[in-house]
Q: What sequence folds into this?
């Protein structure tokens, strides 16, 4: 089925599976269509799933007591979404996951994933690599927030998500960068002026 192509290619980048193993692996995932603005995980819930994005875009964010959003990352096509801490520990999530576009995902439950490990033990390597990449990415994100100014953080955002600024609202980008919508406008103008000077 063509909709599974990118998913299977993603899997095979990290683990060598036979055709039968790949088909069995894929059978554990259910196809879901998710409407724009749907929240698929709320703070206080336990994350019992992880999903692979076929189409669409999600934001993974924390909402403080003042209702202000702090976006950790965006998940677009060929990305995975979950709260790994809640998924692994069974504790309540501190994060929210919301669709920013009409989206299509492939989802596996925690129980099904455990069964998958039993059926195809070598896929543990896949998820170990995924977790390592996720951790490394989050470390770079933290370093960026701590040590880079807003201009450099915006340039990092465009490097990480080259086409995303055309798909989501500017206030979402501002929440990801940790600045106000108004300040983001100033950042973009300043970067544009610097480019023109060269």
A:
């Amino acid at each position: 089925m063509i909709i599974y192509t990118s998913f299977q290619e993603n899997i095979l980048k990290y683990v060598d599976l036979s055709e039968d193993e790949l088909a069995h692996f894929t059978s554990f995932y259910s196809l879901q269509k998710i409407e724009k603005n749907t929240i698929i995980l709320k703070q206080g819930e336990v994350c019992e799933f992880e999903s692979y994005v076929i189409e669409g875009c999600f934001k993974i964010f924390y909402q403080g007591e003042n209702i202000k959003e702090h976006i950790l990352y965006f998940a677009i096509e060929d990305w995975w979404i979950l709260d790994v801490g809640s998924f692994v520990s069974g504790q309540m999530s501190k994060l929210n996951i919301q669709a920013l576009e009409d989206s299509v995902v492939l989802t596996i439950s925690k129980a099904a994933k455990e069964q998958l490990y039993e059926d195809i033990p070598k896929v543990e390597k896949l998820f170990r690599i995924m977790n390592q990449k996720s951790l490394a990415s989050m470390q770079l994100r933290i370093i960026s927030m701590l040590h880079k100014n807003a201009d450099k953080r915006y340039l990092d955002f465009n490097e990480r998500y080259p086409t995303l600024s055309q798909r989501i609202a500017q206030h979402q980008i501002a929440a990801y960068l940790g600045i106000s919508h108004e300040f983001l406008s100033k950042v973009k103008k300043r970067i544009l002026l610097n480019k023109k000077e060269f």
User: Anything to note?
Assistant: The mean pLDDT is 92.
